[in-house]
Specification:
two-stranded antiparallel ribbon, 2 helices, alpha+beta
Length: 81
């Protein structure tokens, strides 16, 4: 009688949210602009967050534009927000 190979196990890649005051705490990462916040909180990326008469730093904006051109998936994610 031949033995059957046992099924291989796969790694569990689920993420666990840490809650603080009943709100999930997301890890803060360095944004494309260089600041420590999530990209949907960035004035450079989200038009509605830009204060009245706010003028972006040209070097930062250029660096962001280059990354969005170079990384299509990133550009798509930013457009979804």
């Amino acid at each position: 009688m031949q033995q059957q190979a046992s099924p291989t196990t796969t790694a569990n890649h689920s993420a666990f949210a840490i809650f603080q005051n009943n709100s999930p705490v997301l890890p803060i990462k360095t944004c494309l602009c260089g600041e420590e916040h999530l990209f949907w909180e960035c004035q450079y990326l989200i038009e509605s967050l830009k204060p009245y008469r706010w003028v972006p730093n040209k070097k930062i904006q250029q660096r962001i534009n280059e990354k969005l051109i170079r990384y299509e998936r990133l550009a798509v994610a930013v457009k979804r927000v």
